[in-house]
Amino acid sequence: xxxxxxxxxxxxxxxxxxxxxxxxxxxxxxxxxxxxxxxxxxxxxxxxxxxxxxxxxxxxxxxxxxxxxxxxxxxxxxxxxxxxxxxxxxxxxxxxxxxxxxxxxxxxxxxxxxxxxxxxxxxxxxxxxxxxxxxxxxxxxxxxxxxxxxxxxxxxxxxxxxxxxxxxxxxxxxxxxxxxxxxxxxxxxxxxxxxxxxxxxxxxxxxxxxxxxxxxxxxxxxxxxxxxxxxxxxxxxxxxxxxxxxxxxxxxxxxxxxxxxxxxxxxxxxxxxxxxxxxxxxxxxxxxxxxxxxxxxxxxxxxxxxxxxxxxxxxxxxxxxxxxxxxxxxxxxxxxxxxxxxxxxxxxxxxxxxxxxxxxxxxxxxxxxxxxxxxxxxxxxxxxxxxxxxxxxxxxxxxxxxxxxxxxxxxx
Amino acid sequence: xxxxxxxxxxxxxxxxxxxxxxxxxxxxxxxxxxxxxxxxxxxxxxxxxxxxxxxxxxxxxxxxxxxxxxxxxxxxxxxxxxxxxxxxxxxxxxxxxxxxxxxxxxxxxxxxxxxxxxxxxxxxxxxxxxxxxxxxxxxxxxxxxxxxxxxxxxxxxxxxxxxxxxxxxxxxxxxxxxxxxxxxxxxxxxxxxxxxxxxxxxxxxxxxxxxxxxxxxxxxxxxxxxxxxxxxxxxxxxxxxxxxxxxxxxxxxxxxxxxxxxxxxxx
Lengths: 412, 267
What we know:
The complex is a heterodimer.
Chain A: H1 3-8, E1 24-25, E2 28-32, H2 35-52, H3 55-69, E3 75-77, H4 79-85, E4 89-94, H5 104-118, E5 122-127, H6 131-143, E6 146-152, H7 153-158, H8 160-168, E7 172-176, H9 183-196, E8 201-204, H10 214-222, H11 224-236, E9 243-247, H12 252-258, E10 268-278, E11 283-285, E12 294-297, E13 299-303, H13 329-337, E14 341-346, H14 347-361, H15 367-379, E15 388-393, H16 401-407
Parallel strand pairs in A: 4-15, 5-6, 5-8, 6-7, 9-10, 9-15, 10-14
Antiparallel strand pairs in A: 1-2, 2-13, 3-4, 10-11, 12-13
Helix pairs in contact in A: 3-5, 5-6, 5-10, 6-8, 10-12, 11-12, 14-15
Chain B: H1 3-14, E1 18-24, H2 33-42, E2 48-51, H3 62-73, H4 78-91, E3 97-101, H5 103-109, H6 111-121, E4 125-128, H7 139-144, E5 149-150, E6 153-154, H8 160-169, E7 174-177, H9 190-201, E8 208-211, H10 217-226, E9 229-232, H11 234-242, H12 250-266
Parallel strand pairs in B: 1-2, 1-9, 2-3, 3-4, 4-5, 6-7, 7-8, 8-9
């Protein structure tokens, strides 16, 4: 079957049965890795599939989410902001209130439990904005595991606060000087470390990308966000929302929110990528919204920003966490079948949304999450006041204060 | 008969082992590559692995990463490699050439287009580092129908069961990765390699060639005792890196590195 045949035969209800046994989401996903890693991935897949429906494992995960992370996170009605936009009611899923300040911890808690089961004494992680690095360093501290975090040298510069947080937590932060010195290069370096130390090291990937089974398990561990939001919507709104909005870099917070709603056909979904200077300028990190070609990077096939010769493109975004040329393979399929609309918000719109929410609701969002808010600003006024939008406020903005201050010309 | 099969059958008759150098095409600049290939043949290369530069070479250490950067800075593309092989074939019609690299450049130009071009310029085999046999359903038949060998890796972590699958899909030769790590990382342990090669002999008649960690004549000769071929990359690419300011001296240096290995292996 060709790619388009595969995709056109995929129904929305099929989306709950992805990936297939080999980790494919239609034509996307898979396990494109060098042979040395195949065994570790097979082992991880076996471990995870044996625990996925194990009540004891789930109970342990739920316990940690409740007592360590502080779940459930609230669904907050942003009344003042909604009124000022003059349209739909906006509800914020407050992942920023989680321990460590973002949705990332849901996944690291889950993968830490897997690391414990496999008995490996060392954890590695890649990080962009530093949220996943912090969340990994946190669970490593709690379990007494050694932790090395790879971070692009440029991101080390723009996220100094998180770098120091990771060091306080006992992790080693290794700046990556190769390539574009951002998230993709951090992931290359983490993969090189893993291939060398595969016997004693558990690699905690922070997003729904990478080789199978990572896109599956990272989605599963984050789906608690959507399950809660669905239940909270029914309780607080009295029905399901009309639309969901989440930012998409690799896409873990978006899949976490969207996945439990995937069969609710009346719930529209919007994934918001990093528009950088504007998709039309070419300086962005929006592979889906810009219709980038198909490609293979970091173990999976997906939409990938690359030049005509297949070299991966430089990306641009104000937000280190979204500054990535690819996207999780499940999003690629969801775009093709039309279940989710993928759009982009540029840096300027993102900053406006960041300031507006901070002023009007007293909530300072991460610049990543502000991409989702920027699209809420566009969408809400086109809807009626009796309609409802749930926005994933995936992280808090403390880490971005220096970035925004710099834009404002303030030095500390 | 494919040139790779032909070459290994000749070597077998002569009781010799294959010496397989790797260089990254376009490093330090595209105009030198074909000259380097001829120099390697003169120094005793039996097969040439020509690296396709990639922006994100995840399985490679710093030496080959930097080679990719140099080649990409000079604008080397996969279609330029095709021209290099075509030029090489004008005077050398017998030495097998294997393209080695990552999948994305091939995805981008399209599998069928790639296979057509590779076959028409005289490429003999393809080794895609991040494409295990499980992901080769689509490209596999396209290569096979054009008599291009699909070469796969086996690693120290590969289970017996997986090795059987890989052997069933592999053509040309089997590339045994001698150690856990990236290219150019460390020196291999020949006893350990021998131990891992033994069960593979029961699974396949393909020649078993060993790469990663071969630095000089001594390691090459050790490996040649237990394997059918010796693959050397970073040790050569290092010489290129050290002489980027005097590119006219590189071909001679590559020859002397490889000739030392050839002599040690044949002794």
